[in-house]
Amino acid sequence: MPNLEKEINRRRTFAIISHPDAGKTTLTEKLLLYGGAITLAGSVKGKKTDRHAVSDWMEIEKQRGISVTSSVMQFEYEGFCINILDTPGHQDFSEDTYRTLMAVDSAVMVIDAAKGVENQTRKLFKVCVMRNIPIFTFINKMDRDAKNPFDLLTQIEEELGISTCPMNWPIGDGVDFKGVYDRATKHIISYTANGGQREAESCEADLTDPELDKLIGEKNRRQLLEDVELLDGASDELDLERVSKGKLSPVFFGSALNNFGVEPFLEGFLKMTSPPLPRVSDKGVINPTDDNFSAFVFKIQANMNKAHRDRLTFMRICSGKFTRDMEVCHVQGGLKKMRLSQPQQMMAQEREIINEAYAGDIIGVFDPGIFSIGDTIVSPGSDFKFDGIPTFAPEHFARIRHKDTMKRKQFVKGATQIAQEGAIQIFREPDTGMEEVIVGVVGVLQFDVFQHRMLTEYNVEIINEGLPYSYIRWIDNEGIDPKKLNLSSDTKVVQDFKGNYLLLFTSEWNIRWALDKNEDLKLSEFNKN
Ligand code: G4P
Q1: Domains detected in the chain
Q2: From the CA of 475, how far away is ligand 1's center (Å)?
Q3: Ligand 1 pocket mutation, candidates 16, 257, 258, 262, criterion most atoms within 8 A of CB
Q4: Secondary-structure breakdown of the chain: helix, strand, coil percentages, each rounded to the nearest 5
Q5: pLDDT tens digit string along 56-98?
Q6: Which of 21, 69, 118, 144 to mutate to test the pocket of ligand 1 (most atoms within 8 A of CB)?
Q7: In this structure, are residues 27 and 138 in contact, taking their beta carbons and an 8 Å threshold?
């Protein structure tokens, strides 16, 4: 097999997504340990008092113990080259999660066995289901008292509308947790709380044999026998076609903290996930093994390193091979030729400059401010665009001003750059300048992040005045004068920074009212320009 194909076929690129505190960081750390990318448990996350993961760049993440930005880590494991993309663990940042999901071929969903699918993260998981990518489930913390495993599966199926197929099954939980039963090999992997040991003991198990009572106890054996019979009769069969379409999620049970069930999960996951998949462009499907390089931008992050005031653009390579110093073209920039500056990858804590990367990999490049989310980069001679990344309609709005009039320049710069990253959306009232802007966000925590970043990165204190609007619609009619529209008194006309007119509404009733009173008015939830 030619080298290009070999390199691409051994790549696996996935996102890891969870409720805050379900164990995403712990699981990531264990996966990195297997790959030898880190050697010490605890290097990904420090003690509780100094809570932050390598992926948590921003101060606010440390303060709140949540992960806001997403980071990328690469490691090698048994011939595979694995890219893990971390995602924000809070639903207020669902849009960021969605963008990250655009850059991966599958997702791993971590669920706390005691909590199941929690209310506040349902939206986050739904975003995953919306993308129709394969979803693998790791049910964590089996060493603690857990919900009934059948109830957990039912909850996933009902809440997320995706079928489940347990690959292994827990034997007991909490202090009585004895391990998992692998359904395909009919082996029991015994649980030992050891934290670091890699190999757990495994033995063949005849569930009808009372000899097994010595290992797991009679009650557990009988329960397991009953459960497994029920599963074999009633649960969905492992159908890889359905897995690949995101309709069926293979489920694994374990305890990331105790490094239990992580290896079977990783092995099973690697067997079932696909290498980098073809991507749709406006000129047809682009195959990953195409000789020509192509990539798209899915994330922009400014000031990751405050000392350097850098702006990193993350792109997913969709086809071919990238080599340092090669010439590429930025399609949205009029096919302008350029070299990508200081291409880098993350390896656990380290960022390192890379010399080459392949389809499936994620690279970060320094960006003087030319790229936008969704942009396509191709080899000279190619000219196509990948499908864009939709923006979510903001649901919360605030009028933002700078406190100190001397800081106008920094205010404009900060608001514009943070908006370019896609962390917020900014609008203005018609015929006003940039003294104040209207900021729209999907989740209210994004306001806090914005305020914090304006202060720490741009040294601007802002005044944030909440606005009562919850719905946004772009006006599709060209050349319309919004002043002539007949609108309810609590509907607001604003403009985005491309000059398009929009309406902000307080209720759906008001949207209907506007459509009723203005016969030709055409509104859309997303910006089509
Ligand atoms: P997150 O990234 O999804 O937010 O979760 P994280 O890995 O930070 O884990 C959240 C807490 O749950 C941590 O405890 C972690 O040690 C614990 N944890 C993770 N996996 C397991 C598991 O399998 N079993 C048990 N019992 N606990 C688990 P913490 O007290 O918040 O932090 P720390 O003091 O351990 O750092």
Answers
A1: 2-75+106-272 (3.40.50.300), 279-378 (2.40.30.10), 396-524 (3.30.70.3280)
A2: 47
A3: 257
A4: 30, 30, 40
A5: 334 544 454 444 444 778 888 999 999 998 887 666 677 788 8
A6: 21
A7: yes
